[in-house]
Queue: 3 jobs
Job 1
Amino acid sequence: MPVLSKSADKRQVLLNLLLSQPFNIPVFHEVALRLQQMLTSHSYRIEEVIKLVNEDTALASEMLKQANSCYNAGKAPITTIKSAIVRLGSQQIVNLAFSASLANNNSENPLIARFLAQLWQHSHIVAITSSWLAVEACHRQRLANLNPDEVYLAGLFHDIGKLFLLKAMDNLIQVGIMKADTEMIESILNDLATMMGVRLINYWKIPEIYADSIERHNADSWRSGTNDYLVAAVRLSCKIHHCLDSNSDLTDLDKRLPMFSEESFLLGIDDIEYLFDLEKSIID
């Protein structure tokens, strides 16, 4: 067995520390988790949902902001949680609660704060685009078992392991155990994000469909016959945003089409250029 260099040895110690971090690091807001549990139980009244959301006025305010900016452009403004629930439905309220919850993650460390901001933008854009793809696939192929609201949440959660790791690294930096640079953070995220994302979803008892989507997101053999359309929508949205994020334009799109073909063919989507324009509009 080869002897580890000092730098490799330190890195392994750091990875072990991150793997041992408790899952009660505040990644999700408690209200969002309780709303998810309430929805899953199917035994709730609208008054209970309103009371729960209003327990945190900052979160309630952010949810209303998200509801008006993302879902209802051109409609009359939503001004109360009750009107949001009536108009959007309980699943979208859960989605908004998680979206607002994840949007508010921040750090006093400038490097971690930058990663958190980039991660939120990516997850937000992927969630919206994935949901749109689900609507289009349902319309074109008459899919009865593909829920755009579930696909939205899968898009929002697809990199949740990175959020946990960034929060864990932030804690280690604050207590002086870790010194991080961009290269180290990116390496750790690439190595551990999928594993930690699956563990986090399972720990919080969020429905298995989301852990399954995370596990298959970067897999070469990602089709299993179950929830393939959901996974395809998130993968395609993610690939397109990574292309945009790397400052790729459409001049060489014909050369890039093969990297989107498997997902786009399954979803029945043939206008990739439109998806680029859609994500650009979300970013702007």
Job 2
Amino acid sequence: MKNTKEKYRLYCEVKRDVPLFLTYNWYSNLYKDTDWNVAVVEKGNEIVGFLPYLLSKKKTFNVISPPLLTPYQGVWLNYPKEQKYANRLGFEKEVITELIKQLPKTDLFQQKFLPTFTNWLPFYWKRFEQTTKYTYIIDDLSDLSIVFSNFKENIRREIRKAEKNLTISVITDLELLYNMKKTIYATNNSKYPIPFDILKKAVDFSLANNCGELLVAKDNEGNTHSVLFYVWDDNSAYYLQGVTSDEFKTTGSMSLLLWEAINRSATKTKNFNFEGSMIEPIERYFRAFGGKQTPYFEIKKTSSKFLKLLNY
């Protein structure tokens, strides 16, 4: 008899529309088997919904929280065909409620759900809370001339300038990205929060499965200006990590790399998700690429009275 993870694995192998960050392979390659699990709801012999999660211990608290390098988590639903809207909402309530029941008891649950997930009412009824966050998505990559024309003028100008002075290459040298990140964070008296082994697992998995690339922008003297890591699935590409050397902040290298990633994504998938930040300067930069401001939910439940007190 197949266990839950095995059923989940087989489902993800067959269903090509499961987003990359919710797939069995993503979790099993990036995280220890003992650190993650999945809630699964079946009808008959068919999976109708699942919710993968990372369970960890933080100090004395058991928490389900967003895994590193996994910008979206949450529920995936396998809807019946030709379902009426009212029936669809009922289906969502039934399946999500059952998924919630299967979650382990924790002091804190916190996940960032895919932008395509729009009905959090079943969580609300179970006393979860929700914060709306935003990303920017270029939702049609079929005509890149239109995509480019939607960029703000300063971004177009940066790209044209950078094209004259910089060369873009696809690389596999992860340490280049990692060491630049560490340097930038150290300059700001902080520590890069992503361990090398997690970053390596994400890059290795993406390169091995042809669902991600590392891009670098260098000048004629071989100086590295910027590095970018992005991934994709059948529906979207996602900007995951990027870094620009302090020495070359004004060369337009990151704008050029993002434009290159968008161009390359157009041959692989349907849209490009900037993983928009809630930090104002970063939001302003991503917004300038003309993507559609798109809300997504961060859903949270604090069960520990002590944690509630700390949050208060």
Job 3
Amino acid sequence: MNLRELQYLVAVDEERHFHKAAARCFVSQPTLSGQLKKLEQELGVLLVERNTRQVAMTDAGAAVAEMARKVLADVKGIQEIAQGFEDPMAGELHAGLIPTIAPYLLPVIIPALGKAYPKLKLWLHEYQTSVLLEKLRRAELDFLILALPVETDKFSELDLFKEAFQLALPSGEDLASQPMITMGDLNNREMLLLEEGHCLRDQALDVCFMAGATENAAFHASSLETLRFMVAEGMGMTLMPELAVPKKQTKKDAIRYIPFKDPKPSRRIGLLYRKGSYREQAFRNIQGLIQGKVSDL
């Protein structure tokens, strides 16, 4: 039995598909299947039921996969200890980011991280919050950048920055001529929002509730860029996080972005990692770099 076989088993348990599990592990499907058969022979028990339609775990397979997750997490911890003593800013780190942050923050920080810490290799993963938290718990990711707070006591958090919202609306709307607006200006307005699963949707709903605005229930977007397209087409208005707002605007633009007067609606962005991680110093160094770059914007 080796760690690679355990990784294959966990991948099959979570993907329930040999091709997807193999792609996730960066091996061919025959290689993955062959290694699992070898593991079954070594353990003397069937772990995976195979047929032409689907992959199912046996009771033994599910139990072994759960134990394998713990073993792989412990191995990850050992690697973190060794890396922390050698050089906390060298080696690999797997970072997870939510979709409403990743496309806008990464271009700002990745060049700076590469310059400041050339020995650090970052693997970047983009998922919604619930998936990120589960992957962090299973030690598949080392840290997350997402909107806080999250309901868990298993992780430690570091504050990164507060991100204000701006109102994005068609340039022909009556509010488009205002240099700044208040929350009261949204009273009785209808807002375009993201679909279920995005934490930004919940934050925007909170703002709508406080401002007396309502949700446009006829359309839910899958991304901020879809929301931006809908606003540009004159379909309504939405709240846009500040990092996603273009730095330059002209009178010819189809969308106007208007900041709020104080108190500005905003969201809190932070870094999350497993309690007791030996890479904590690396996370704190990344925290400082991000705070510096965002403050310069």
